[in-house]
Amino acid sequence: QVQLVESGGGLVQAGGSLRLSCSASGRTFSSYNMGWFRQAPGKEREFVARISWGSGSTFYTNSVKGRFTISRDNAKNTVYLQMNSLKPEDTAVYYCTVLGSDYWGQGTQVTVSS
Fold first, then answer.
1. Which pLDDT tens digit goes with each residue over 7-45?
2. Which one of 41, 67, 105, 106 is at 20 to 30 Å from 21 when CA atoms are compared?
């Protein structure tokens, strides 16, 4: 069983920054491929970024490339999403997940005002 808890969301003006955190339970966190997804009102949940367990390689959806950075600290069982140059269209509930599993956090709201 894995529990994921996101934090760090909030209200920010366009052009601002936020850093989301996702803390995971479980002693095998370092072996998980982790991802961030988001869901805007009235839209389907969409992929944002992922980070592999071994090499730490990353991948981003095109709309956030160059603005968002995913990282992880295996010693703290935590994955991060640094979001810079935020835009109103980034407004959504952000979720972390263990990729390929049914483990999802409860989500954290990010609201970007214009």
1. 999 999 999 999 999 999 977 888 899 999 999 999 999
2. 41
